[in-house]
Model the fold of this input.
Amino acid sequence: MSRKLAILLFPLFLAGHTAMADAARLYHIENENDAVILRRYAEPVAFPLSDADKTIIAQLREAANHYKGVGLAAPQIGYARQIILIEINEQAAAIRSSTTESLPQQIYINPSYEPLVSTSITEDWEGCFSVDSVIGKVPRFKSIRFKYRNLDGHWIEREVEGFHARVIQHEVDHIRGTLICDRLTKDHIHGSPEAMKAQRIAELNDNQREIIQQLYRHSPQPVKSERKGQ
Ligand code: NI
Done:
């Protein structure tokens, strides 16, 4: 139930209706074996891409297509490699703000960022496929200078702001072994998905609420992690 609630409430990872039977299992911080991978500082990727890294990228795409959501990092499917995927579809953009633009699926390799000198901190709701127990309003930089290698190995550097910048920061955290449960200190609103439901919904307008309900009705049951001792 908590997984379904998390999907309902947290647009970072809204589920869709496309199902692929062979999508990778998602790793969870609450599972101590999974946590070993999730907590590792991921290894940078060399070019030209090895067959192993190409396979990881293909698996990451499959998992993103299956679970939907707006971002996924290689450690979340079991590989401590510096590879992240971001995809912001129109529905995910609509439930954020009028200024959030959709973004086709991107693969960013060896990504890093630094805040722009003029930026400030902003808080917004985040959930995570790898964190079942807590969601909340995570502080992030509004605008960043983002640097990564594309699939051809070229270094790209540019300024990014808004929701895209937020998702980048969330996914780069993953390759550094950091999760939202580390960011959600006592100074920031957070709690279990169930406890936060009313507040999250109350902040949406009618149109956004309708979109979330539609997505919820079409969401597949996520693959359950194999919990140790459960
Ligand atoms: Ni995450």
Notes: The radius of gyration is 17 Å.
